[in-house]
Design brief:
five-stranded antiparallel sheet, eight-stranded mixed sheet, alpha/beta, 11 helices
Length: 315
């Protein structure tokens, strides 16, 4: 049974729809990457997994979010408290904003342990968690405030906080944003090592397809509130079928090809509810056809477990 199964999820903010008919599945121990530009609906989808969106203004008019077979959208507040942290942990983007600036690092970790694992030795466990995420001299770092740490160290602390309740699914929302390339690689390698060590599943939210090949088992490409391509990471990266996926890949620098010109994608992602008729990518698509403004394209299977919302997959 999948650890997480999202079925036909819709998310509205007042009269505007932000996420439309999104379905995905994550097995225990698997890494799933959700990719797309800012404004595509990735973070909103991720926050819905543990019902972290304020309602109102957010609403879920249809769909299911099955976590270990139970529908999160039908859970009572007490049930939600039990799954938040223990079943689903979060690593939020911008660690400087995610950490409490007036609390020492150790106090923040001990607070999480007291809430989710009250029987543990919080001092020893806090040190162990910081060691696990590669922070040197953890006993000293526990006494530090967030502003006394570098951006990379702050991100490692946020990961330690996400791991403290020992979740079965870790949602990492843009965990490498605002970090330099070297630290980005270290954070991705850390997540990969922790997954092997702890056996947890990971949902990684990113706009950078260059990170996907390093860690993902499966990838979903999201555009304008909708998944447009989904499949095994190796298959999607080697043979991208949707024009949007191909455009994202053309904007990623490649080692060994310093002279290759990067191709930008003109235009912007349409806002929630401002989606064009038919294919939502059509106004920016390099292979657009007159029929693209007709009925919205459905899923087409192009390989085993690989599907795409575009009839012009070879364009």
């Amino acid at each position: 049974m999948p650890l997480l199964e999202v079925r036909n999820l819709r998310i509205d903010f007042g009269p505007r729809r932000a996420v439309d008919e999104v379905s995905l599945s994550i097995d225990p121990g698997q890494t799933y990457c959700l990719v797309g530009e800012s404004g595509c609906g990735k973070s909103i989808t991720a926050l819905s997994i543990a019902r972290l969106l304020p309602t109102p203004p957010a609403a879920h008019p249809s769909g299911e979010i099955l976590l270990e077979g139970r529908d999160v959208l039908r859970m009572a507040p007490r049930e939600l408290q039990q799954i938040r942290g223990r079943t689903v942990g979060y690593v939020f983007q911008e660690p400087g904003a995610a950490l409490n600036p007036v609390m020492r690092i150790g106090a923040q970790i001990r607070e999480s342990l007291a809430l989710h694992r009250p029987g543990s030795d919080s001092d020893a466990e806090a040190v162990r968690l910081l060691k696990m995420v590669g922070i040197p001299d953890p006993e000293t770092r526990l006494k530090a405030y967030p502003h006394q740490l570098s951006g990379g160290m702050q991100q490692r602390v946020v990961i330690a906080l996400g791991l403290a309740p020992q979740p079965r699914l870790l949602v990492a929302d843009e965990p490498t944003t605002a970090l330099d390339v070297t630290v980005q690689a270290q954070i991705i390698e850390l997540l990969r090592d922790l997954q092997r060590h702890l056996g947890m599943a990971i949902l990684l939210i990113t706009h950078n397809l260059g990170l996907v090949g390093e860690i993902a088992d499966r990838v979903g490409v999201m555009y304008a509130g909708q998944l447009v391509e989904e499949g095994p990471a190796i298959e999607v990266l080697r043979q991208p079928r949707h024009p949007y996926t191909r455009a994202l890949l053309r904007s990623v620098p490649e080692l060994g090809h310093p002279a290759r010109r990067l191709v930008g994608l003109p235009g912007n992602v349409p806002g929630p509810g401002d989606w064009p008729q038919g294919c939502r990518f059509a106004p920016r698509c390099p292979v657009v056809r007159p029929t693209c403004s007709g009925p919205s394209p459905g899923w087409s299977s192009v390989a085993a477990g690989h599907q795409v919302r575009c009839p012009f997959t070879e364009g």
